[in-house]
Specification:
- About 30% of the residues lie in helices and about 30% in strands.
- The protein has nine helices and 14 strands.
- The chain is an alpha/beta fold.
- The strands form three sheets. It has a seven-stranded mixed sheet, with helices on both faces. The chain has a four-stranded antiparallel sheet with strand order 2-3-1-4, covered by helices on one side. It has a three-stranded mixed sheet with strand order 5-6-7.
- A hairpin with a 3-residue loop joins strand 5 (about 90-95) and strand 6.
- The chain has two domains: about 1-85, Alpha-Beta Plaits; about 90-280, Vaccinia Virus protein VP39 (Rossmann fold, 3-Layer(aba) Sandwich), CATH 3.40.50.150.
- The protein is globular and about 60 Å long.
Length: about 280
């Protein structure tokens, strides 16, 4: 069964999360809506009631924008193992990168580096606003740091996409950490596929276990996790270094910037729908 939902952009991520939590094996996020897929046997009266209640609560929470509209339809059986791949396209990100899945050739563009990412169980394929914001601000930080090598730390590396970008932009050494063993396995495979495995120190070590400082620290997490790790993140940034923070909902931006205001100034801020990415410079 395919559920098609049209809603305001600010509600799309919340709806996507709800569908996954209710057992959808996959959702497709579009500009003005979401498509969610369910096994036909799993679409029962309870799921429909839960959906109606959730959409009603979402509408009461935020009355701005058009009402949520939904429609169900039966999708004929096909080779689902491969049909989802048609939704993944090469994407141009920032000034420096093409991000592409391994089964497609990226468009030819001499001045751009190609990052090949296998969409899987770890976050970071280059399509989400937070990943794109981080990639763009990594370029900005590199420009501010000037010519030559710069050290970098990727906190919560996920698929490894940001560590790969850092390697392509000349960072060394690069440390990438994550506490999820699945993410580490996916990141290791992606680092190898992009020919930069030797450039990145990949580790499950906690952020607080690191002792060195870095010219650039990137943390694409959530506002809550960033605030919890704020002291450890501050300690890892070298004087005059940069800190990129993302995964922050717009309404929580003030709390994050206030927490880091004693030692950092906001160099740049980027908002895409409800997501905010910050580029902070240490005093």
């Amino acid at each position: 069964m395919q559920l098609s939902v049209r809603a305001a952009a600010s509600k799309l991520d919340a709806l996507s999360n709800f569908f996954v939590e209710r057992g959808s094996p996959g959702v497709v996020l579009k500009r003005s809506g979401v498509e969610a897929f369910f096994l036909r046997s799993a679409v029962n009266a309870q799921l429909r009631r839960d959906l109606d209640r959730y959409i009603g609560a979402l509408g009461r929470l935020s009355r701005r924008g058009p009402p949520v509209r939904l429609a169900w339809k039966v999708v004929e059986q096909e080779d689902w193992r491969h049909s989802w791949k048609r939704f993944i396209k090469p994407r141009r990100v920032g000034r420096s990168f093409w991000v592409t899945p391994p089964w497609l050739e990226p468009p030819k563009f001499r001045r751009r580096q190609v990052i090949t990412i296998e969409p899987g169980m770890a976050f970071g394929t280059g399509t989400h606003a937070t990943t794109r914001g981080c990639l763009e601000f990594i370029e900005t930080a590199r420009d501010c740091l000037g010519a030559g090598k710069f050290s970098a730390l990727d906190v919560g590396t996920g698929s490894g996409i940001l560590a790969i970008a850092l390697a392509h932009l000349g960072a060394a050494p690069i440390y990438a950490v994550d506490n999820d063993p699945v993410a580490l396995r996916v990141a290791r495979e992606n680092l190898r596929a992009n020919g930069v495995a030797a450039n990145v120190h990949l580790s499950r070590a906690g952020l607080r276990a690191l002792r060195r400082r870095f010219d650039l620290v990137v943390a694409n997490l959530t506002a809550e996790t960033i605030l919890d790790l704020a002291g450890a993140l501050e300690a890892r940034v070298a004087p005059k270094g940069f800190l990129i923070l993302s995964g922050i909902l717009h309404r929580k931006t003030g709390a994050v910037t206030a927490r880091f205001s004693d030692r950092f100034r906001v160099r740049r801020r980027k908002r895409a729908r409800e997501w905010v990415t910050l580029l902070l410079e240490r005093d």
